[in-house]
Amino acid sequence: MTPPLVKTEGLGKRFGQDWVLQNLNLSLERGELLVLLGPNGAGKTTLLKLFSGLLRPTAGTITHSGTPGFVANPPAFHRHFSGLENLAYALRLAGRPVDLAQVSDALSQMGLPPAKAVMNYSSGMKKRLALARLSLLRPDLWLLDEPEAALDTEGRKLLEGMLSEARKFAGVVVATHERSWVGQASRVLTLGGGAG
Amino acid sequence: MQKIQKPGDLVTTLLVGLGLTLLAVGFYFALAAPPDANQGYLARIMYLHVPSAWVGYLAFFSALLYSAAYLIWRRPGLDRMAAASVEIGLVFLGLALVTGMLWARPTWGVYWTWEPRLTTTAILFAVYVGYLVLRSAIEDPDLRAKASAAVGILGAINVPISYMSVKWWRSLHQTQSLDLTTGKVHMDGAMVLALLVNLAAFSILFLALLRLRGLLEKRGGKLVSEA
Amino acid sequence: MNRTSQVSVTSRSGAQPALFGLPRVFWLAWRDLTLEFRGRAGLLAAVFFLATMLLILGLALGPLRSDLEKAAPGVLWVSLAFAGSLLAGRAFGLEVEDGTLDDLLLTPGSKEWIYFGKFLFQLMLLLLVALALLVMTAGLFYLPLKAWPALLFTVFLGTIGYAAISTFYAGLLARLRGREVLLPLLLFPLVVPVVLAAVRATAGLAQGLPVAEVADWWRLLLVFDAVYVTVCSLLFPLALEG
Questions:
Q1: Residue C132: CA count within 13 A, CB half-sphere
Q2: Which residue of C has its CA nearest to A69?
Q3: Quick check: C168 contacting B, CB < 8 Å?
Q4: Helix (H, G, I), strand (E, B), or coil: what is residue A193?
Q5: Integer-rounded Cα radius of gyration of chain A
Q6: CATH number of the A6-78+123-131+138-190 domain
């Protein structure tokens, strides 16, 4: 039996004196879509970062078996690089061989121009570029922070297509305020407390 | 200081008592010891200067150990002890620098000379001032502990390398050949005894201060977390 | 509050092709150099700062040729140390400005390679500045460049030591407010041995001493470089984790 992609036991995270998350037990398998709901400050992004390994838990354990990929909100890129360069370097720094034709393909699938510098991108285009990056890196665990934000109708369609493709080989976690995600979710976790 | 109630703190109380007693004895010996043949009464500053410098270096070595231990076990207490070591070390190293300068003025005619040990000590002082400034600049306790542990380790590694570089630098730069060790050609038995008692007193006081500072920090931390 | 916390990461890079070593280090350094030249912010500012500094030092110490010659090695290395502290922030400044540090940290595998990539980038920047500086000191302070291979070797060893520490501290302070002030404060006391040894080696070469006479200083620089590159690369993953 394969181990779950991510498994947490008694997971807790404290910033300063405030516990943002406490005693969280959950696990995620390949093919699953976990939707995180909750008001601002409930710890959705914190949980995504714990899943990715960017943050260390204050309490409990978290076990990974697979590479994480992260779409932050808003996503970050090097301003002085074009979309193509950003993606090519993302692959190279992950230790992957780079096929530039494949990278341009991924860009045009998302409707993005290859040569334009990212500093001239709109926020919706940056989101598309972040999704293109994930589709190239093909991580085992897709972590998306408010992926629908800044995307237009066509962009959301692309996102949905990409995620159903991803669920064939990976697990997906989406942190969102849109209840429409709940329909496709294999699991929903509502985080409480926070600022609300 | 005397109202520490936890049984474990008996050790601290005893250390403080023993250290202060030895300090008084050492002070008496230092004044009773015969004056130096060459330097006269001036040499008595040695009984303060040498133990201070020793405790300074001891404290930074202790900070190195606590910093490394923190990185291995990640216990906040170890970080507190490292910080306490550095604070105490800076006080004693500062004392050593000042007494050294007070001694240098009548002996060499200048307050400051680029003697290797003196220069290394000044560099070391700067490194650990940086340590404390860094601590005050970081609010997140985990990040602060990690960053200062790294600085504590790098700073301690720098001590021998700094010393070597400054020593060679001086030796190739033959303008003065002053060394803090000159002038102590012969030491009377009473002088050795006074020095040893003072060294012991300062070392015990270091341990006592370290424990006290650790306790204070721990209780301070508890107050904050209970509030 | 006495909960235990541990992270166990099992075979996180299991599905990845095994390409984690040198190529990534070079790609990272190359990428940062490209970005630095496209952004143009850091390097030019540092070189102009140096030119101004050399002019002021020349005015303060000159105009006697013998005085300037005597000061040249010290001027060279103190200027390089100052310029280095301006440039030190660049190694991670790029990532912080663009917000890409997290993406870099998410790359699979352990984090030492990031240190080496950033170190290489920092080293290249410093070497470029050092070359400009050598020419300027030769012109303004009459530093003889006759023994240029040995001088270049000294510059190389000195910049390695400097870059080893500045890269580490830049990473450690990357996310902190006030890092511009903290960085030189932490950096300068630690690089004293580098500056001293490099100044003495440079001075020896300027006086026309044979290479054997300055070899001791090179050895000290080598020891420093080896110790600090090793320790900093080992401590670096700890410095960056969240």
A1: 17
A2: C106
A3: yes
A4: coil
A5: 17
A6: 3.40.50.300
Which chain A residue is nearest to residue B223, measuring alpha carbons? A17
Q: In A, which residues are within 8 Å of C39 by CB distance? A: 80
Question: Out of A15, A17, A56, whose CB is closest to B225?
Answer: A17
User: Domain total for chain C?
Assistant: 1
Spatial distance between the Cα atoms of A55 and A50, rounded to a whole number of angstroms: 5
Alpha-carbon distance values, A110 to A78, A94, A140, A150, C5 (Å): 19, 21, 21, 14, 41
> Has residue C9 been placed in a domain?
no
Q: State the count of interchain CB pairs (< 8 A) between A and C.
A: 107
Could you read off the pLDDT of A58-98 as tens digits, one per residue? 888 898 888 899 998 889 999 889 999 999 999 998 888 88
- Cβ-Cβ contacts under 8 Å, B155 against chain C: 189-190
Are C98 and A77 a contacting pair at CB < 8 A?
Answer: yes
Q: Which domain holds residue B40?
A: 9-226
Touching partners of B (3+ C-beta pairs < 8 Å): A, C
Q: What is the ipTM of this complex?
A: 0.86
Q: Which among C217, C68, C225, C207 is positioned nearest to C154, based on CA atoms?
A: C217
pLDDT tens-digit series, residues B28-45: 877 777 776 666 677 777
Alpha-carbon gap, residue C110 to C130, rounded angstroms: 32
Per residue in A121-157, pLDDT (tens digit) is 999 999 999 999 999 999 999 999 999 888 899 999 9
B and C: number of Cβ contacts within 8 A: 83
On whether the CB atoms of residues A141 and A6 are closer than 8 A, the answer is yes
Q: State the Cα–Cα distance between residues C94 and C100, nearest whole angstrom.
A: 8
> How many structural domains is chain B composed of?
1
Q: What are the chain A neighbours of B225 within 8 Å (beta carbons)?
A: 17
Domain boundaries, chain A: 6-78+123-131+138-190
Largest CA distance in chain C: 69
On chain A, the residues whose CB falls within 8 A of the CB of C94 are 78
Alpha-carbon gap, residue B76 to B227, rounded angstroms: 19
For residue C170, which residues of chain B lie inside 8 Å, CB to CB? none
